[in-house]
């Protein structure tokens, strides 16, 4: 979890400003699957008055960013309506970070029953560095890591186009997305890049099964590609894909 916190980039302010522009009320946001609080911090610090940030992992929450108006809550993967009221909120207007469970959508519609409730779901794909690093990363990702990715990873690979999103478009847009006008950037050296790879679920699953995906040979190939241009630090660009919609009436 500490590695995840260190290895993951921060979201751009433009993403949250766009979401906030579609939510007339800025009193409360529910950040579902908050992890280490990557989304909770920017939305609480500048946009929403209160943030309820939930996750099923106590290790992730241990390293979450602490601010006065963020309340972190450990929750089970599924919750009853009573538990939802206790852990999150009563029926109200909230925006939220995506967490994919069929039961979750039922709860989202319940929580966002009042007007102006908005659900926002976003993901970012693997970072683009340059052609040389990309040529090494592609077979590493699609061949070496492939047996260890969870099925849900396909939703990310498909840029959320195939995600079930049974809601109505927000005002000012023709559909629910995915919209791709956002990108997050992180300056990385090679060690940072390896830290990011080690934070990925596929790598962690392989590690748990006794398989080291970053072998000496693989790391050497990355080193050669990384150092080809003589620049030790590079800007990694992570494309973001957003689905956003009205969740209740």
List keywords for this structure.
249 residues, alpha/beta, three-stranded antiparallel sheet, globular
Walkthrough of the structure:
The chain has helices at 2-7, 13-21, 40-46, 58-62, 81-87, 102-111, 131-144, 153-157, 190-199, 201-208, 216-226, and strands at 28-32, 50-55, 70-74, 95-97, 118-124, 179-188, 234-246. Strand 2 (50-55), helix 4 (58-62) and strand 3 form a beta-alpha-beta unit. The protein has eleven helices and seven strands. The chain is α/β, with parallel strands linked by helices. It starts with a helix and ends with a strand. Helix 7 (131-144) runs antiparallel to helix 11. The strands form two sheets. It has a four-stranded parallel β-sheet with strand order 3-2-1-4. Strands 5-7-6 form a three-stranded antiparallel β-sheet. Pfam families: Methyltransf_11 (PF08241).
Task: Give the helix/strand layout.
Blueprint (H helix, E strand, L loop, with lengths): L1 H6 L5 H9 L6 E5 L7 H7 L3 E6 L2 H5 L7 E5 L6 H7 L7 E3 L4 H10 L6 E7 L6 H14 L8 H5 L21 E10 L1 H10 L1 H8 L7 H11 L7 E13 L3
Parallel strand pairs: 1-2, 1-4, 2-3
Antiparallel strand pairs: 5-7, 6-7
Helix pairs in contact: 7-11
């Amino acid at each position: 979890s500490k590695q995840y916190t260190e290895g993951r980039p921060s979201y751009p302010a433009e993403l949250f400003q766009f979401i906030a522009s579609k939510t007339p009320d800025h009193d409360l946001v529910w950040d579902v699957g908050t992890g280490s609080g990557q989304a909770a911090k920017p939305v609480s610090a500048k946009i929403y008055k209160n943030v309820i940030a939930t996750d099923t992992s106590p290790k992730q929450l241990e390293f979450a960013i602490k601010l006065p108006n963020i309340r972190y809550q450990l929750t089970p993967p599924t919750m009853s309506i009573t538990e939802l009221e206790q852990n999150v909120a009563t029926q109200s207007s909230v925006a939220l970070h995506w967490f994919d469970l069929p039961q979750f959508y039922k709860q989202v519609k319940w929580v966002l029953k009042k007007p102006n409730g908005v659900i926002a779901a976003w993901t970012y794909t693997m970072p683009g560095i340059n052609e040389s690093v990309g040529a090494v990363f592609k077979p590493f990702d699609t061949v070496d890591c492939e047996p260890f990715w969870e099925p849900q990873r396909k939703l990310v690979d498909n840029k959320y186009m195939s995600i079930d999103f049974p809601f109505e478009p927000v005002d000012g847009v023709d559909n629910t997305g995915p919209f791709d006008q956002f990108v997050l950037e992180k300056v990385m050296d090679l060690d940072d890049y390896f830290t990011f790879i080690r934070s990925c679920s596929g790598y962690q699953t392989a590690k748990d099964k006794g398989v080291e995906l970053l072998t000496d040979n693989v790391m050497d190939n990355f080193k050669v590609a990384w150092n080809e241009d003589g620049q030790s630090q590079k800007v990694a660009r992570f494309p973001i894909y957003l689905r956003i919609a009205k969740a209740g009436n």
